[in-house]
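Next comes this protein:
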Amino acid sequence: MKTVLLVDDDQEFTTIAARIIEFIGCDVYTAGSIGEAKQWLADMRFDHLFLDFMLPDGSGLHLIDHIRSLKLTAQITLITGHPSVKAALASMCDEQINYLTKPIEANDVKRVLDTKTANHHAQTDPFERHFGCLIGHSPAMKKLVTMIERVAKTNANVLLMGESGSGKEVVAQAIHNASQCSGEQVSVNCGAIAKDLIGSELFGHEKGAFTGAINQKKGVFELAQNGTLFLDEVTEMPIEMQPNLLRALETQTITRVGGAKPIEVNCRVVSATNRTLAEIAQKNVLREDIYFRLAVFPIEIPPLRARPQDIPLLSEFFVHQLNDEYKTQYQLTEQAHAVLAAHSWPGNIRELKHCIHRAFIMADPDTTTLTIDEIVSSPFASTQEPDIQVPARAPATSATTLSAPVKVGETIEEVERKLIYQTLESVDGNKTLAAKMLGISTKTLYNRLNAYEQSTPEETK
């Protein structure tokens, strides 16, 4: 059982953190200042110290100097509630020192306490990661890395365009990591938020701003202060809500719902869409003025079929992750690599990952080899396949003949909901075909249906 010393002057945080550490199975002692911590260190030996960066009688760095002067081997984790010093903490870390930012979770504490596992990961991971998260060395990937390096030196907004599963969220994380900003990355899926809640999610709200607003809430623009705001599926945001986003981008100020005071915000906005430029223009899913604000630096993410040199490397990486998780030593056979190389991967990296995972599940436990005889195609990954043909009865159920009466006073959202459900009914619940008929992506359709299911029963009637 490990012995832990927790040094922090925040009594509420200390109480919660001590309970977490005890729950993990460690003996924990607490101190509220550097002076108290020195007294504990004089009387006891600790395996791990959780140390607040800013204490009433000095910096936590002073206690680190004291620990080193005593030649103690205890592991140290610096803790801070100030995101502005996160980059500074990261630069101080070595084999003995780690760091966490508040609020912390049980998994964070468990990870830093398990130093043997952490060191094992560092020693056994043979994969080079660009910006800590991107893997690949193909010409297409090298070009992408160069673009990220260039834009990271600026504060320009970035629009990521690429097929579903091509890794847009990982590229957004790479841009954030390369920027070395002091704030966090905050992500939000614009296609998954109900229309009447978008303003609250983006800009926050004041207490009492609307029914159910029992507390003040910060929006994602404020949460991403001095960091990166990732707007996934930005082209699925209702067109009537986009002027509010445009104003925030132009003025770098937001006003919470129900509030009157402008609040200055400072963050890079990275947005993403799986629509092509032609679709964006033709289907009027994004206003022209907001497009130019979001796409100061557009980046086209290559599909996996455009970077075949990376397929073996990514495959081995996914196998390595599974081996690490399940404590196994499986390896892909040459035959498996040949099958993977011959596939067109319409579902991109996501499809490849799922394929490896399936092979891992089906692997013979008495061997250490992974074989792949065939790849199970996804019905949703149809990028490389012929367009889905509407069945012969389509003329009777086409969008022009669907019975969706519009009543005076109905909102656009209510009409949209009726149209979606009637389209699904006309094709016997085939979501892929319904999405094609409605002119939206399958992912957007699922997001809309999930939003409707989470609505109140009265709203869904």
